[in-house]
Design brief:
It contains eight helices and three strands; from the N terminus they run H-E-H-E-H-H-H-E-H-H-H. It is mainly α. It has a three-stranded parallel beta sheet, with helices on both faces. The protein is globular. The relative contact order is 0.14.
Length: 210
């Protein structure tokens, strides 16, 4: 099971390339290093199961989570490319895709975001992030967040499945969000829906979460 990960949220202009590279090294290349170690032996034995904790943000980018989402997109693309070859050797690959999870990991990301310096971005973007995004994120975690124990149960189900799924989403509330991309290949439906949710109907969103 690959579960290493770090988070990052905030305006892109305020994040250093060094921090971005460090995140990619953990979230993506950490997985690559692990798979390079275990896959040859699994192929020799013609059996095995690699379970990767991904994220719903590996399927759908979320505003102000640009680099974190990019790392999870990389994870998803890596596994999607590798799974066909792996199946030839009877090796299963499964992506567990949680939404928000109430842990110290997420709490630390948002605490750091609240204390960060946003002088490197414009005032409007800083206000959108601090006064809109962070406030709504707290409501989302409080209303829709899963516990680590819940994610562990989902992961155990994937591990014990007779025919392990390639993808398993742990929170049904996020299924419609991921489905928007497939409903309209141009991306217009998805981007329009998220724009309105963030900038036009944020009050309705907060009300629905309470």
């Amino acid at each position: 099971v690959s579960n290493a990960g770090v988070g990052m949220a905030g305006p892109l202009e305020c994040q250093s390339l060094a921090a971005m590279q460090s995140l990619m090294d953990t979230n993506f290349f950490g997985l690559v290093r692990l798979v390079k170690e275990v896959l040859p032996d699994m192929k020799r034995r013609r059996g095995g199961h690699i379970v990767v904790i991904s994220s719903i943000m590996g399927l759908q980018g979320i505003v102000f989570n640009d680099i974190y989402a990019a790392s999870k997109f990389a994870v998803e693309g890596f596994c999607e490319s590798l799974v066909v070859q792996a199946l030839r050797f009877n090796v299963a690959i499964s992506l567990v895709e949680p939404g928000p999870v109430t842990t110290e990991f997420e709490a630390k990301v948002y605490e750091e975001a609240e204390r960060a310096d946003y002088s490197r971005t414009d005032p409007e973007t800083a206000d959108i992030f601090t006064k809109l995004y962070l406030r709504n994120s707290k409501d989302v975690f409080a209303s829709l967040g899963q516990t680590p124990e819940d994610i562990a149960e989902h992961t155990l189900w994937v591990i014990e499945a007779a025919r392990p799924p390639f993808r398993h989403q742990t929170n049904v509330a996020y299924t419609p969000m991921a489905a928007l991309k497939h409903a309209d290949p141009s991306g217009a439906l998805m981007t329009d829906a998220f724009y309105k949710l963030v900038f036009k109907y944020d009050a309705v969103l907060r009300l629905s979460l309470h």
